[in-house]
């Protein structure tokens, strides 16, 4: 779960903001997915430079949980809104 203590957020959030600002500065909507994939992959490879099954498992688990968190907080409410606007399938 991404619900970490506040003191950890104060360390990580400025770096996250700087990274997000870098994406905005690229102004590259045509390759946003590629830029995001590169960034996430490079971050994981930097954090886990040596092959190790536990680390691979940790990375994949974190990515899977990120996917579920994105769906739960952003995608599902958006789908609910669009269903209200346009009617169910």
Set down the secondary structure blueprint:
Layout: H1 6-26, H2 32-47, H3 53-86
Features:
single chain, 89 residues, mainly alpha
Cα gyration radius (Å)? 17 Å
Helix coverage percent:
over 70%
Integer tally of domains: 2
Strand pairing plus helix content: what structural class? mainly alpha
Beta strands, count: 0
Termini separation (Å)?
32 Å
Outline, from the CA principal axes?
Answer: extended
What would you call the quaternary organization? single chain
Mean pLDDT: 94
Give the percentage of residues in beta strands: under 5%
The main pleated sheet reads as:
none
Number of helices: 3
Low-confidence stretches: none
> What is the element string, with H for helices and E for strands?
HHH
Q: Would you write up a description of this structure?
A:
With about 90 residues, the protein is mostly helical. It has 2 domains: about 45 residues; about 40 residues. It is about 80% helix and about 0% strand. It is extended, with a radius of gyration of 17 Å. The model has no long low-confidence stretch (mean pLDDT about 95).
């Amino acid at each position: 779960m991404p619900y970490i203590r506040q003191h950890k957020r104060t360390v990580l959030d400025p770096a996250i903001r700087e990274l997000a600002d870098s994406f905005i500065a690229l102004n590259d909507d045509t390759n946003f997915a590629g830029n995001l994939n590169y960034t996430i992959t490079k971050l994981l490879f930097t954090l886990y430079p040596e092959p190790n099954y536990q680390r691979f498992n940790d990375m994949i688990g974190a990515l899977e949980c990120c996917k579920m968190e994105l769906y739960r907080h952003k995608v599902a409410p958006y789908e609910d809104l669009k269903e209200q606007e346009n009617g169910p399938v």
